[in-house]
Amino acid sequence: MRTAVLVEPTEFELEDRPRPSPGPDEVLVAVRDVGICGSDVHYYEHGRIGDYVVEDPLVLGHESAGEVVEVGENVTDHEPGDRVALEPGVPCRRCAHCKRGDYHLCESVRFMATPPHDGAFTEYVSWPADFAYTLPESVSTAEGALCEPLSVGIHACRRGSVGTGDTVLITGAGPIGLMVLEAARAAGATDIILTDVVKEKLEFAEKRGADLTVDVTETDLDTAVAEYTDGVGADVVVEASGAEPSIKSTIDVVRRGGTVVLVGLASEAEVPFDVLELIDNEVDVHGSFRYKNTYDAAVDLLADGEVDVEGIIDFESELEDIDDAFRRSMEPTVVKGMISLDS
Ligand SMILES: NC(=O)c1ccc[n+]([C@@H]2O[C@H](COP(=O)([O-])OP(=O)(O)OC[C@H]3O[C@@H](n4cnc5c(N)ncnc54)[C@H](O)[C@@H]3O)[C@@H](O)[C@H]2O)c1
Ligand SMILES: C[C@@H](O)[C@H](N)C(=O)O
């Protein structure tokens, strides 16, 4: 099977690898669509993300969906022909975190495209059947692949307990910020503000339904939020840029008693926070790491037409053109590139 392998930073090689056989509890999936995520681009450019270092050739891609072509002997809930979205992180199922239900915090998780685990820029993936979610007729495999960033958005909104009538401020209008926008709207938020430093990103966010956008290179965010909320502040702030000034600004724009959800990964681990302000305003600050139990919700939201994910796709490329697709994905105005396979 054709497989795109990152052999060095900025260098893919197209290899012919043996097609895997599904284990007893697995499905073999012919991959149809794979999104290019910011973390894929980071591994492509730098060969590492923090402590995760690409030491051996690695297959990137963790936003994937395709068609089941074979099932393992114990699999009863999938059959060849099913179209499925693949949840990329498979936990050990035995540790304290898994047993508590926090399987996304499992320290032995096997997460696609995170060294040393291969991802989905390949023709076939064999994957645990219970981490493959059947897509109804009305949901495309491209949408199935984008259940992954949508899941990040759903989990962030759950962490922030976003609810009916809330004002939600999302900092960063990249794919994650835009998926938080979708999830927040679906959760009942009525006023959604997005910030960014790139005009085109903000124009796009506005087209996708943001009630207010703020270019933080031109406009003071505190003033804009205070004006919009009559001086109260946002009920929930979801930080989705990873930019230090943006992380710092979250506690200034959240309302007293509100919630800050940190999703974006800062390049420096330490970002100073005014803890007195946090205490005085009784602000809840939550980290949000990947997701758990979101795929069923993501598929249902797509089937019901409650969210749009396909609209963030800028371009689709073939596996053979993966180098070019990654280079395009590095342009600041590009939101989402996809690799489509028709094996
Ligand atoms: N916690 C998790 O589980 C998780 C999952 C996926 C992604 N992430 C992280 O979330 C962040 C967003 O992911 P993405 O794929 O959308 O990234 P991205 O880089 O595509 O988007 C980030 C956006 O933030 C904007 N930005 C930069 N500086 C800003 C500032 N000062 N104020 C407001 N906006 C600013 C950028 O212009 C860009 O549009 C990244 O840090 C990523 O690593 C975290
Ligand atoms: C969650 C996923 O989208 C993220 N890029 C990660 O590797 O954790």
Q: What's the story with the biggest beta sheet?
A: 7 strands, mixed
CATH topology of the largest domain: Quinone Oxidoreductase, Chain A, domain 1
- How many helices? The count is 11
Uncertain segments of ≥5 residues (pLDDT<50)?
A: none
Strand content: 25-35%
The CATH homologous superfamily of the largest domain corresponds to Medium-chain alcohol dehydrogenases, catalytic domain
Query: Roughly what is the average pLDDT, rounded to an integer?
Result: 97
Which architecture of the largest domain per CATH? Alpha-Beta Complex
Principal-axes shape call: globular
Q: Which structural class do you get from the secondary structure elements?
A: alpha/beta
SSE ordering: EEEHEEEEEHEEEHHEHEHEHEHEHEHEHE
User: Helicity level, as a percent range?
Assistant: 25-40%
Question: Which secondary structure elements does this structure contain, and how are they paired or packed?
Answer:
Blueprint (H helix, E strand, L loop, with lengths): L1 E7 L2 E6 L9 E11 L1 H9 L1 E2 L2 E2 L9 E9 L11 E4 L2 E2 L5 H5 L9 E2 L12 E5 L3 E3 L6 H5 L1 H13 L7 E5 L3 H12 L4 E6 L2 H9 L4 E4 L5 H8 L5 E6 L4 H10 E9 L12 H6 L3 E4 L7 H9 L9 E5 L4 H8 L6 E5 L3
Parallel strand pairs: 12-13, 12-15, 13-14, 15-16, 16-17, 18-19
Antiparallel strand pairs: 1-2, 3-6, 3-10, 3-19, 4-5, 6-7, 7-11, 8-9
Helix pairs in contact: 4-5, 4-10
This protein binds nicotinamide-adenine-dinucleotide and threonine (THR).
Describe the structure.
The chain is α/β, with parallel strands linked by helices. It folds into 2 domains: 2-146 and 309-340, Alpha-Beta Complex (Quinone Oxidoreductase, Chain A, domain 1), CATH 3.90.180; 153-287, 3-Layer(aba) Sandwich (Rossmann fold). It contains 11 helices and 19 strands. Strands 3, 6, 7, 10, 11, 18 and 19 form a 7-stranded mixed sheet that branches. A 6-stranded parallel sheet has the order 14-13-12-15-16-17, with helices on both faces. Helix 4 crosses helix 5. The chain binds nicotinamide-adenine-dinucleotide and threonine. Nicotinamide-adenine-dinucleotide is lined by residues 38, 152, 171-177, 195-198, 201, 216, 240-243, 245-246, 263-265, 288-290. Pathway: Amino-acid degradation; L-threonine degradation via oxydo-reductase pathway; glycine from L-threonine: step 1/2. One of its GO terms (biological process) is protein homotetramerization.
